[in-house]
Amino acid sequence: MATMIDTLNTKDFQNHFVVVHPLDDVPEQKVDTGALGAIPMTWTVRISLMSLRAYLVLMMLLVFYRVVTLAGWFGHHG
Amino acid sequence: MNNRTIGVPASGLKTEVVPVRGRVVKSKWTRDLLTFLMVVGPGLIVMVADNDAGAVSTYTQAGAQYGTHLLWVLLLLLPVTYFIQEMVVRLGIATGKGHAAMIYQRFGKWWGLFSLIDLQLVNFLTLVTEFAAINLALSMMGVDPRIGVPLAAAGLMLLVLTGSYRRWERAVVLLCLLDLAWFVVAFWLRPPVGELVSRSLIPNMPAGGLTASLMFLVIAIVGTTIAPWQLFFQQSCIADKRLRFADVKWAQLDTFVGACITITAAGCMMIAGNASRLHGFTFTDPARMAADIGSFAGGFFRNAILLLMINAAVLGTTTISLSSAWAYGEVRGWPHSLQLPVRKAPGFYLVYLLCVALAAGLVLIPGAPLQLIILGVQVLAGVILPSAIIFLQLLLNDKELLGEYANKPWNNYVNWTIIIVLFALSLILAAQVAAPNLFPAG
User: Fold this and answer.
1) Where does B39-208+215-408 sit in CATH, by number?
2) What is the distance of C-alpha B249 from the center of its chain?
3) pLDDT below 70 — which residues of chain B?
4) Are B437 and A69 in contact (CB under 8 A)?
5) A-B Cβ pairs (cutoff 8 Å, strict)
């Protein structure tokens, strides 16, 4: 377990565990996200982003419709 | 606990030797407990802070209008909120970066900017509602808000300016533990235990059936329990705390414990609302409800509920402002850590301070359109939530990015179901706007 140096090599610390707070620990090697670039456009990613665009357009149209209705442009107040 | 502090030179570093401070323990059980206590924080904080001022208002209103009939909705939301935040845990630990940075890097500038602007806008409006709640509660306690609100804002600023993540986390965890007082309030109001259990476990409808106001309230409960800022906050918080791959299971446990506390506290708020309803009071806002409860339960309970309301708003403010500051810092490439002193991360702290100061200032302007802002929060949160979760789900299926930490098939079944339900609720809300007579009035 990387949270601790499991059992120290020295005889004194055999069968003991050292628990280290994350902020006191050695910085861990993470995924190099900078080298990865953009996400691959798989079928799922493409469909998801298209659905999201459609959803956002629909929401904007609804907000526009609501504003127009409240402004009374259709001849009545919603 | 039989342990002591030692210093161990870290191995594996090519250029420098960093001393690692640890605690020596003898048993595996103690090791696990201590590790959990060191990891606990981001999950607990994000979950408890989710019961912010808006949530207190929504849950107490649900209790005041529909009694304990909607407890089952809360129980249903427990796994939902856990599964969503648990994905953030894996993403944060694997990448060591915040959510805004990941959207920017993997989905490009357009989606990155969209997410960031949407988040900043909805966060700011939510902050205004937090200070509005502080204003309301202080007024009810007889404290002049013109003094109390700036004092609360100053305290919230000082909380982050210590240059120590640990100091901030300890203070905020303490505030989270204060939230447990909701359990005491609910217990003393003597709720019918059998009814609570049956209405939590068996889905049931209040008298009158599915009306427009019930539908709105259910959507509001869902929207309150799962909020977009939570994704951004927890991932950045995990990155700032530098949680390690080995911490994944403890961070998941931290999130689960937090989810259980927040859902149970939400249930207690419903019980408080129900108690005021049973005594014949009509709900207007949580501060008024506290005064109503005080009239039959005593002044202690009145003040306790008002203080809990302020605590909820304070927790909400520090976490939401931090989610904004972290996200902005990540995207702009500024230093962005609570571990850094102000002079080393001026932009990060400036965003936090501006969020708090502007929201507090707006609330103090006489005649500020607070009702319009609250409505704006609900609409914007409804729009941003499904989109934020879509990005999260796609990132969690990104094997290039996450490798073994990517979603398993069962994760995807659960998460796509949650996403579809959230989209459906958003569309119902939208349909309700377009056709107000869709559901019977009630």
Assistant:
1) 1.20.1740.10
2) 21
3) 1-20, 371-372, 374-376, 378-379, 382-383, 433-442
4) no
5) 148
Alpha-carbon gap, residue B308 to B323, rounded angstroms: 22
Read off the pLDDT of residues B176-194 as tens digits, 9 standing for 90 and up.
999 999 999 999 988 888 9
CA-based end-to-end distance of chain B: 58
For B57-82, the pLDDT digits (tens) are 999 999 999 999 999 999 999 999 99
Q: How far apart are CA B70 and CA B205, in angstroms?
A: 8
Residue range A1-23: average pLDDT? 64
In one-letter notation, the amino acid at residue A16 is H
Q: How far does CA B83 lie from the centroid of its chain?
A: 15
Residue B425 makes CB contacts below 8 A (sequence gap 6+) with: B218, B219, B222
Contact yes or no for A35/B35 (Cβ under 8 A): no
Distance of alpha carbon B420 from alpha carbon B400, whole angstroms:
25
Task: Choose among A13, A26, A33: nearest Cβ to B401.
Answer: A33
Say if A75 is an interface residue toward chain B (CB within 8 Å): no
Largest Cα–Cα distance in chain A?
A: 88
Please, which residues have CB within 8 angstroms of residue A60's CB and are 6 or more apart in sequence? none
The alpha carbon of residue B136 and the mean position of all alpha carbons in its chain are separated, in whole angstroms, by 21
The answer, for A38 touching chain B at a CB cutoff of 8 Å, is yes
Q: HEC string of B198-211?
A: HHHHCCCCCCCCCC
Predicted local confidence at residue A14, as pLDDT: 64
**Domain residue ranges of chain A, discontinuous segments joined by +:** 4-70
State the Cα–Cα distance between residues B151 and B135, nearest whole angstrom.
11
CA dihedral of B226, B228, B233, B235, whole degrees rounded to 10: 90
What gap in Å lies between CA B208 and CA A21, rounded to an integer? 54
> Residues B81, B192, B59, B50: is their CA dihedral positive or negative?
negative
- Taking alpha carbons only, the member of B85, B162, B173 closest to residue B341 is B162
Q: Provide the 8-state DSSP code for B411.
A: H
What would you measure as the largest C-alpha separation in chain B, in angstroms? Answer: 71
* β partners of residue B23: A19, B5
Question: Which member of A8, A26, A39 has the closest CB to residue B398?
Answer: A39
B111, A38 contact by CB (below 8 A): no
Q: What residues contact residue B238 under an 8 Å CB cut-off, 6+ apart?
A: B42, B88, B89, B92, B93, B251
Instruction: For residue A11, count other CB atoms closer than 10 A to its CB.
Output: 6
Compute the nearest-CA separation of A12 from chain B (Å): 11
